[in-house]
Description:
Helix content: 40-55%
Strand order of the largest sheet: 1-3-2-4-6-5
Radius of gyration: 21 Å
CATH topology of the domain at 91-281: Uracil-DNA Glycosylase, subunit E
Order of helices and strands: HHHHEEHHEHEHHEEHH
Shape: globular
Structural class: alpha/beta
Largest sheet: 6 strands, mixed
Distance between the termini: 37 Å
CATH class of the domain at 91-281: Alpha Beta
CATH superfamily of the domain at 91-281: Uracil-DNA glycosylase-like domain
Low-confidence stretches: 3-25, 43-95
Amino acid sequence: xxxxxxxxQSMGLGxxxxxxxxxxxxxxxxxxxxxxxxxxxxKSPPHAFEAPAEAIEPAKPSIEPAQAATxxxxxxxxxxAATPPSTTLRAEVRSELPQxxxxxxxxxxxxxxxxxxxxxxxxxxxxxxNAKARWLLIGEAPGEQEDKQGLPFVGRAGQLLDxxxxxxxxxxxxxxxxxxxxxxxxxxxxxPAPDEIAACNGYLLQQIRHIQPTLILALGxxxxxxxxxxxxxxxxxxxxxxxxxxVPLVVSYHPxxxxxNQPDKAKAWQDLLLARKVYQHAGG
Length: 284
């Protein structure tokens, strides 16, 4: 055994570089890693390779420390006992939510009467796009036109969003799925109330469970603050990589806001570029 490996073993450390799980199962480097781990664990006391507590995702949505999308990966994220974010997401959602298939979930949303918004809506707005897409875009709530058409992000704001996605190399109907925190329009487009958010939260979690996205893009201050459980301004939230239910989350402006504030379109484009880098870094 080399001097380097002896030093690593004495400190309870693994190899400096580890391949992604599931990517190179039969690669000679992966086979050597497995042999090294078996040898080290046989010689080390119990829990020597246990993942640190901060490497394990919390059970509820939380804000993670800001990190640049192009930064070098943290080697603690590859500790053998750590759970990959996507696995954490699937385990949490599946253990806490009833097993509804996609069509059953759509019907349950359409028939929902869990809050007062059912009395004023024209129809619910479930979502739009590819249910197996790797990108999940989440907005705030349906507006007047969305309430009439039953689809999210229609009208001028929807056209702007379509153009932004195309510029980033994404097709709205194939590469992304678009949903909202609320499935019904609040009267007068007012801000959603806490009980309305709570009534819809289970639907959003089930959509995430079915889609299993690689990346979430939160559009607008309200969507970002709701998902991340914070009162920070969108200016403080954007430009960073957060996590929601174990999935990387990037914050950007709502297209309707950009129609009123044209100079911030450049910032929204920077957010899309950041999201694309995070997606590519995650193996997309």
